[in-house]
Structure formats: structure tokens, C-alpha cells
TrEMBL record:
Signal peptide: none annotated. Residues 1-148 form the Peptidoglycan recognition protein family domain. One of its GO terms (biological process) is peptidoglycan catabolic process. It comes from the Bacteria. Gene3D superfamilies: Peptidoglycan recognition protein-like. This is Peptidoglycan recognition protein family domain-containing protein. InterPro entries: Amidase/PGRP_sf, Amidase_domain, PGRP, PGRP_domain_met/bac.
Amino acid sequence: MKLVSRAQWGARPWREPNGSIPYAGPRKGTKLHYLGTAYTFGPHNSCPVYVRKLQASHMDVEGWSDIGYSFVVCEHGYVFEGRGLVRRNSANGNVSLNEAHYAVAALLGASGSTHPTDVQLRGLRDAIDYCRADGPAGTEIKGHRDGYPTLCPGDVLYAWVRAGAPGPTPP
Ligand SMILES: [Zn+2]
Ligand SMILES: [Zn+2]
């Protein structure tokens, strides 16, 4: 897995004390997200910049204590560490939903670039497997829209979720 640590993408420190709240119990699995805004794939050096923007938006506009997602996967297949495996995410809709599943987001648009790349699917699958193995998390793979009224993670990614999040066909 091509993991990008918080230090590597230049994350801001999370706010205390809320940013440090650990999960109270085991996770049932992982929920997938997309950006829900316009997004256009670009060169990988723009990805850390975008993840920093996302964190700033979550902290300064939403008022959250950190980037909301557990992990963020760019179109080049890199897995950016958000809240990670231990700290409870704030992306699934409410505290009980956040407790139940990790939140893994794809840098994928509601318009513009709306179809994940093969390496992005590989990275999403890597993140799901990492959450299961090291979280640990159960085997559920769901979308943000499961249990919460939202279009997220978009119809294209949701179809992949419904198919069990298969990795891309090996070469
Ligand atoms: Zn979402
Ligand atoms: Zn990238």
C-alpha cells in the first residue's frame, strides 16, 4: 500500500480534545465516500495540496477537529492518512455511524472526473484491507448513503461498493 503519512502530506495538527477521541468499540467495516463536488484529476504533486485544502475546509468551514475521513485515496492510488485507524472519524453522518465504520474517501468528483482510475480502486481496496487487518474492522463495505441521506459516494463508486469492492483486474 502506498501510504502517505500526515507528516508527508503536511497535515495541520488536530484540535484537542475532540480530535483525539478513540473508537469506543470495534468497527463493523468501512464506508466509502467521494468528494461530492467538481474535481478534475491532475498530477500527483497536486494531491497533497488538495488533501490540505480538504482538511482546511473540514476544520475551518465545517468546524471539525481534523479532516473528517479516516483515509483519502487519490487517483494515483496513494492512501493519505486522515484520522487513521485509532481516532474516530467525523464523516459518516453522526457519532453512532462514525463509531460503526471507518470512512475512506476517494478524490473523485460529482462532476469532472467521476470515474475512479484502476490504481485508485487498488488504493481504495488497499485502505479497506488495511482497516480490516490493522483496525481491526469487520467485513462490511458500504457507502455513506447507507444509513444516511446523501448521494455519496456517487453512483459509479457505489456500484463498485455493491459489487463487494473488487480490486481492479490484475494485469
Ligand atoms: Zn460521504
Ligand atoms: Zn495522487
